[in-house]
Design goal:
Largest sheet: 9 strands, parallel
Helix content: 40-55%
Order of helices and strands: HEHEHEHHEHEHEEEHEHEHEHEEHH
Shape: globular
Number of strands: 13
Pfam family, one: F_bP_aldolase
Distance between the termini: 8 Å
GO molecular function: fructose-bisphosphate aldolase activity; zinc ion binding
Cofactor: Zn(2+)
Structural class: alpha/beta
Number of helices: 13
Radius of gyration: 21 Å
Pathway: Carbohydrate degradation; glycolysis; D-glyceraldehyde 3-phosphate and glycerone phosphate from D-glucose: step 4/4
Catalytic activity: beta-D-fructose 1,6-bisphosphate = D-glyceraldehyde 3-phosphate + dihydroxyacetone phosphate
Bound molecules: 1,3-dihydroxyacetonephosphate, glyceraldehyde-3-phosphate, zinc ion
């Protein structure tokens, strides 16, 4: 039995998301969530997952969504980020089924000052639900980790009540992800806030599970966005095991892994840290920086290999009147970027055990 025996291909929502995360947790694997900023990067992520025969998560950051809409559009009042997220979601919905894999459609970090972005996406979900009986997106992330725990939980609960009505999943963050996100530099936050405490997880679990089980927690265990010099990041994925045990014991639950965890800052992480995190209930791992690099690397390699064909429209080593159109056509060099991105997404799938799961 595999994923396609329990959910359909294409974008999945509600109970199907529940089934996929339960299945992943039970079978000890996780699904990569790839930050996408264009139809090209979305297609590369889908192609990669199809070819390793598993599911994928496509997500848009606030800036990524604005970029999708077009840098020429003003982002006043989050208009470009809302428009781009909706446009990207429709692109994913239009093509996902053709790849024959389950796809979770998600939006990334949303801090308090970006709540108008969240409101805009949620309005689009509600509108889509009224027509189709499901939300446009499978899930969204709220990142109120910079606020107090009480305020974080209170705002999340308010949104979760609204999201539960349309079967939309919520990912929340507690403890701070280091490095940079949405241009906010968290590289010098104090060390303790990079590691979430078991009581925080219990408080969230208690408050959220009264409303729905369609939620996941990005608990900080030293995670950092971006890739830095080796040894710079100290991950403690074993903390996730403490959280699971604490929730199980306090609430007298059957399951050893009652919580669905999300691993932020997947780029540059060791296979061993990823393996431990997944064994302790991580069902989703975000990857952005490494797939950005992979995309660029394809172009870099192409340029280096074909440099003499890329200096003018006409004239190359084969003759001064030879045309170079088939080298500078974006479909040629952007495709090279897609191919190297596909390889990196497949590496993430392998690290997470997300292969041959259909
Ligand atoms: O967590 C992420 C997006 O939310 C991705 O982090 P990286 O860029 O470190 O892979
Ligand atoms: O927050 C982390 C993600 O890598 C998003 O990055 P971004 O805001 O540069 O798109
Ligand atoms: Zn954060
Ligand atoms: Zn993140």
């Amino acid at each position: 039995m595999g994923l396609l025996d329990i959910v359909p291909s294409g974008v999945i929502t509600g109970d199907d998301v529940r089934k996929v995360y339960s299945y992943a947790s039970k079978h000890g694997f996780a699904i990569p969530a790839i930050n996408c900023t264009s139809s090209s990067t979305i297609n590369a992520a889908l192609e990669a997952a199809r070819d390793v025969k598993s599911a994928i998560i496509i997500q848009f950051s606030n800036g990524g969504a604005a970029y999708y809409a077009g840098k020429g559009i003003s982002n006043k009042d989050q208009q470009a980020s809302i428009l781009g997220a909706v446009a990207g979601a429709h692109h994913v919905r239009a093509v996902a089924k053709s790849y024959g894999i389950p796809v979770i459609l998600h939006s990334d970090h949303c801090a308090k000052n970006l709540l108008p972005w969240f409101d805009g996406m949620l309005a689009a979900d509600e509108e889509y639900f009224a027509k189709h009986g499901e939300p446009l997106f499978s899930s969204h992330m709220l990142d109120l980790s910079e606020e107090s725990k009480e305020e974080n939980i209170e705002i999340c609960v308010r949104y979760l009540e609204r999201m539960a009505k349309i079967n939309c999943h919520l990912e929340m963050e507690i403890g701070i992800t280091g490095g940079e996100e949405d241009g906010v530099d968290n590289s010098d936050v104090d060390n303790a806030s990079l590691y979430t405490q078991p009581q925080d997880i219990l408080d969230i679990y208690n408050a959220f599970s009264k409303i729905t089980d369609l939620f996941s927690i990005a608990a900080a265990f030293g995670n950092v966005h971006g890739v830095y010099a080796p040894g710079n990041v100290k991950l403690h994925p074993e903390l996730l095991g403490k959280h699971q045990a604490y929730v199980k014991e306090e609430l007298k639950l059957e399951s050893d892994k009652p919580v669905w965890f999300v691993f932020h800052g997947g780029s540059g992480s060791t296979e061993e840290d990823i393996r431990v995190a997944v064994s302790l209930g991580v069902v989703k791992m975000n990857v952005d920086t490494d797939t950005q690099w992979a995309y660029w690397e394809g172009i870099k390699q192409f340029y280096e290999a074909k440099k003499a064909y890329l200096q003018g429209q006409v004239g190359n080593p084969e003759g001064e009147n030879k045309p170079n159109k088939k080298f500078y056509d974006p479909r040629v060099w952007v495709r090279e970027a897609e191919k190297t991105m596909v390889t990196r997404v497949q590496q993430a799938c392998k690290d997470l055990g997300n292969v041959e799961r259909l």
